[in-house]
Amino acid sequence: MSETDFDAIVVGSGCAGAVAAYELAKAGKSVLVVERGNFAGAKNMTGGRIYSHSLKKVFPDFEQEAPLERKITHERMAFMDPAAQMAVDFTSPELAEEGKDSYSVLRAPFDQWLASKAEDAGAEYICGIAVEELLKDGAGRVTGVRAGEDEITAEVTILAEGCNTVLAEKCLGNPRPKPSQMAVGIKQVFELPAAQIEDRFLVPEGEGAAMLFVGDCTHGNVGGGFLYTNKDSISLGLVATISTAADGANPHPVYQMLEDFKGHPAVAPIIRGAKLVEHSGHMVPEGGYDMVPRYVFDGCLVAGETAGLCMNMGYQVRGMDFAVASGQMAGQAAVRALDAGDTSAAGLASYKTAMENSFVIQDLETFRKWPHTMEGWSSMFTDYPIMVKEIFNALFSVDGEPQKPLLKRMMPLVKKRGLFKLAGEMRKAVKSL
Ligand SMILES: Cc1cc2nc3c(=O)[nH]c(=O)nc-3n(C[C@H](O)[C@H](O)[C@H](O)COP(=O)(O)OP(=O)(O)OC[C@H]3O[C@@H](n4cnc5c(N)ncnc54)[C@H](O)[C@@H]3O)c2cc1C
């Protein structure tokens, strides 16, 4: 092999990049991580909850070490119209079982911890500078990066720049995601004492709740709201499609949706008296399997959201567990290629095999149709929440008038929306889940 400055360079210290760097450094390889934020996590955002299974494979003792907020043991999914909410509320010891457990996290401390693990293993860090270009030789093989004035070379470069795939498009020729494959998320963090969080969300000490909302939170547009409890704060936000956000004629800009969501009668009491301490916005890929680009190149691997690895199922949002797993697989494949003295695409191909044999590509492929189902299913965000409200009003209201049998009360409400249409939509949704 020719002389290079490092065995490996990692671009970006999010979940994917930091874990890839950790794997390489742990194997004794010289690694440089270039992170454009002033520190790892400075620019990163998530909802968010991380499903722990992939983190545990990298850091078996993460539960003792990582800055986790709360173990999520209480799940809620809610349909909301402008004034009402119908929620499915679920809690079970199984949610806390090792391997199935999940935790709320705040990215600034969490990403700094991940970076510290890579640094402790021996990775070098440069923060506060963006990689502007991937260097290539005459044959098109990636040979390193250009960051500011510096050209730094490596046998292998791992690109983990997140969902804004500037370098992947410009230097690797990966396609720009379509607007329909991207969404925008906004989030606010509200401080609230731990005891009040536990009282409001009915969780034992140290445990937490995750809530997903559909309907009026996005004023009937495709998307949804989320809420996660942290140790002594609440993360509250929503995700809307890029086309909704970019539609100048939309009477409800995304920031207004969030304001209205916060004022909804089902949400306002949850954050009552809480102090707003943080506001952030970020894009999120939602195209699923169909937006996964090529991720193995001569001298370069692509990991995390740069490889399109994210999934919003409405009842589950997953990106961080994919990012951690792909970072680990990319780091390990790079180590194997370095040891074999072949970091060409052929030498790095074990990354693709590992990804395809793992939950990462398999889950994305299994739920491939879901993003298309959601895209064309406007009634899920408009009619359904209203229908659900009417059904539950009919169920719970007692006004002293003689009541009709339940079925007779329910059927007109369902028929109003078209029984066959409803059945067809449900069938299509179930088939894509
Ligand atoms: C609103 C919202 C809610 C979400 N909720 C959840 C959730 O609840 N659960 C879940 O699992 N996932 C969730 N996700 C998705 C999850 O946050 C991402 O999938 C995950 O963070 C991707 O990790 P990553 O390492 O690929 O990218 P990132 O975490 O984005 O890291 C990329 C890193 O690269 C750096 N970088 C970028 N360009 C350059 C450059 N040119 N030079 C140097 N550095 C660069 C960035 O600063 C950043 O540190 C959510 C996302 C959003 C936006």
From TrEMBL:
Keyword tRNA-binding: no
Cofactor(s) needed by this chain: FAD
Alphabetized InterPro entries for the sequence: FAD-dep_OxRdtase, FAD/NAD-bd_sf, FixC-like, FixC-like_C
Keyword Oxidoreductase recorded: yes
A UniProt-annotated Pfam family: ETF-QO_FixC_C
Domain FAD dependent oxidoreductase span(s) in chain numbering: 7-54
A molecular function (GO) term: oxidoreductase activity
Protein keywords: FAD, Flavoprotein, Oxidoreductase
Domain of life: Bacteria
Family statement drawn from the similarity comment of this UniProt entry: Belongs to the ETF-QO/FixC family.
Name of the protein in its database record: FAD-dependent oxidoreductase
